[in-house]
Amino acid sequence: MADEAPAPASAVADPAPLGLAAFALTTFLLSAKNANWMSHSSGLTFLGYALAYGGLAQLLAGMWEFRNKNVFGATAFATYGAFWIGLYYYVKDVGGGLLAKGDVAAFNHDLGWILLAFAVFNTYMLLMSSQLSLAVFMVFLTLEATEIVGAIANFDAGSHATPTGAVKVAGYIGLVTALSAWYASAASVSAGMGLKIRLPAGKPLVG
């Protein structure tokens, strides 16, 4: 009996650059708002992109990572894609109503609980990312700091509608997170193209 032909290689390109870029841009917009860089704008520039780019595009990247049998990438991208979609609907359907009633404290505390819950998830993903590249580890490390500081800041914000000092700090850490994710995305693009320009991703911390 003839040997079976080997299974064809996956025709799906690496979805990680897309997932990282989607996460980076949406994180940048929200963090710029929290850092009070958007004092002359509505501050809601992140919202549509939370659904379309950070949410849908990142969720799709997670599904393609399932196709590539990448458990870490699938879990990370699908989870944070759902995070942005959930944040979009929370702000539109729940948070907007709370703010319209003037219940800013409840809105801030809700955001604190959301960030705290995702910090729990991010903690073990941070641990697992230490076995990947340094670039990916830095994304999860800075994201961990963003979520923890952001949770504390929102719990402490009370009825303040404008960013407090602690929220601004979380915003600046979030900007570093966005830059880290953009770099990791660019490094993955350069690796996937396999041409002359290569950006180093760094060796894993554990391995």
**SSE string, helix = H, strand = E?**
HHHHHH
Q: What's the helix count?
A: 6
Strand content: under 5%
Main sheet specs: none
Rg, alpha carbons: 19 Å
How many structural domains can be distinguished in the coordinates?
A: 1
Structural class comes to: mainly alpha
Percentage of residues in helical conformation: over 70%
Can you give the mean pLDDT?
92
Uncertain stretches: 1-8
Write the layout of secondary structure elements.
Elements: H1 16-34, H2 45-67, H3 71-100, H4 104-129, H5 134-157, H6 165-193
Helix pairs in contact: 1-2, 1-3, 1-6, 2-3, 3-4, 4-5, 5-6
Summary, kept brief:
The protein is mainly α and 207 residues long. 73% of the residues lie in helices and 0% in strands.
Keywords:
73% helix, disordered N terminus, mainly alpha, 6 helices, 207 residues
Describe the fold and architecture:
The protein is mainly α. It is 73% helix and 0% strand. The protein is elongated, with a radius of gyration of 19 Å. The chain starts with 15 loop residues before the first helix and ends in a 14-residue tail after the last helix.
